[in-house]
Write a structure and sequence with these properties.
The chain is mainly beta. The protein is built from one helix and twelve strands, in the order ββββββββββββα. The N and C termini lie close together (about 5 Å). About 25% of the residues are buried. Bound molecules: thymidine-5'-diphosphate.
Length: about 140
């Protein structure tokens, strides 16, 4: 797998935020507010304290990750470098490019992690072993 992207291509996007004292609203429109076509949406919740999720790589899939409630940290790794971004605002989305390894950790109590994904679920797009990911990203 020749990595086309690096962790430096994975950026925090500012999403729209409408609101006043009655509350706030964030809108994500397909291909306008997200730089890919959204094919799947899922969310993680009821995550026990100290638990980690998402320890895997993707070959083609790209995603936007939003802490719609609470906070957590996302580590992205391209096989050469890694960085950790804290998500704690419902109007910030972390864009993860294809070919990255990612880990989600340090969930606050009540955190909800929304994931907008560019592909339908396909286990063949996953790399679940970090050593294998490193070998693929260096090949
Ligand atoms: P997994 O991707 O391992 O979760 P995480 O990386 O967040 O820890 O998914 C957990 C289980 O759910 C696994 O058996 C695959 C299944 N799953 C689906 O069937 N469809 C999906 O869209 C997702 C995200 C997971």
């Amino acid at each position: 797998m020749k990595a086309k992207f690096t962790i430096h291509d994975c950026a925090l996007l500012n999403l729209s935020q409408l609101g006043d004292r009655h509350g706030h609203l964030t809108i994500i429109e397909n291909e306008q507010d997200v730089p890919f076509e959204i094919k799947r949406v899922y969310y993680l919740y009821d995550i026990p304290g100290g638990e980690s999720r998402g320890g895997h790589g993707h070959i083609h899939l790209e995603s936007l990750i939003v802490a719609v409630s609470g906070s957590f940290d996302v580590t992205v790794d391209d096989g050469h470098e890694r960085k950790t971004i804290s998500l704690n605002r419902p109007y910030h989305g972390l864009h993860i490019k294809p070919g990255m390894w990612r880990e989600l950790h340090n969930f606050s109590s009540g955190a909800v992690c929304l994931v907008l994904a560019s592909e339908l679920y396909n286990e063949e797009d996953y790399i679940r072993n970090y050593q294998q990911y490193l070998e693929l990203s260096h090949s």
